[in-house]
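[Q] Does anyone have a clean structure-token version of this?
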Amino acid sequence: MMKLYADIHKKIGEFELDVLIKSNAKRIGILGASGSGKSMTLRSIAGIEEVDSGRIEMAGRILFDSAERTNLKPQMRNVGYMFQNYALFPTMSVLKNVMAGLRGGASEENKTKAREMLARFNMEDFERKLPGELSGGQQQRVALARIMVTEPGLILLDEPFSALDSFMRERMQTEMEEMLSDYQGQVIMVSHNLEELERFSEELLEISGGKVINHRVCNAATKTCEAEKTEMKEFTHFDERGNAYMVDVSGKDITKRTAKAEGSIKMSPEAMDAVLGKKIKKGDVLTVAQLAGIMGTKKTSDLIPLCHPIALTNAKLEFEIDEEACEIKAVCTAESEGKTGVEMEALTGVSIALLTVYDMCKAVDKRMEIKDIHLVSKTGGKSGDFIF
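[A] Here you go.
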């Protein structure tokens, strides 16, 4: 059973979070720049951030499932969350801060549990202190004690060392590792610091623009992380006799599938000028090519013999123009909810769009060169995510 499965989709304005995490690792790192979506991913898992669609499952327990309309409240998820500033209550004593994580208020049982946890973190002599009277390291211990006293199945650490100088960062990370050494649940830590995460993680995910763009496996001995190695797989469209056949996908799960492909066409300055100036007699080249590319995604199974017909939920084709290089790049994104991927749909969309550009402009420049058509990324399905 997968310890953590998080398929998260959320759109805020122009930003779209589209993340898939599947892991049995005890220590998971998420690397990303500011605004990449890494903290939003943590908040979504914790239930603090409302998710548009997807599924979040922890050790077989469903926390969120848009299809089944399941959405547990944060306090029901058994997830501990440590905020960047620790979020301790400033007017409450250390003991009361730790007890705040427990149900039942200031009962004697809760006091005993809280004191046992403080003793575990060597903070028993500070139970009457206020957070403002503690050092940064002591505040961190109290925040972690408040989490651990609830016995969570998952702990989320949101950039716990971001505000510290290099000396204090290393010292407090060592303390954090010691405090978590006998914790058997999963821990996810997000940071923009690669060195921190390599030291902490068993698996490392890199997020950019709301998507996972890299997955690495970490070596505890060397404290380094490398791209996951995959074994060469057999071709899927041939039987044992070498005869071609269509793959049976009836046993596969229905999941959200996405794919992005790109390619470019290089042309003469005269052709580029004609395209941008809308001087081609056949019409507006980019508008026609965009429409043709989108139509191509929907006709992929008619063009590629062994592709399954797919009901696309979204198909988008955009152009990026480099006037100086006289080059037009086509980028196609395809999405579906189904049992098989949409890589071929994205690749077909790019190919058809670029061929349409060639067809409309060949009277001006027959030496145009279509090149570098390739898959950029894909998500969903048994094979997992791919980044070119």
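[Q] Thanks! Anything notable?
[A] Residues 4-227 form a domain with the Rossmann fold fold (CATH 3.40.50.300).
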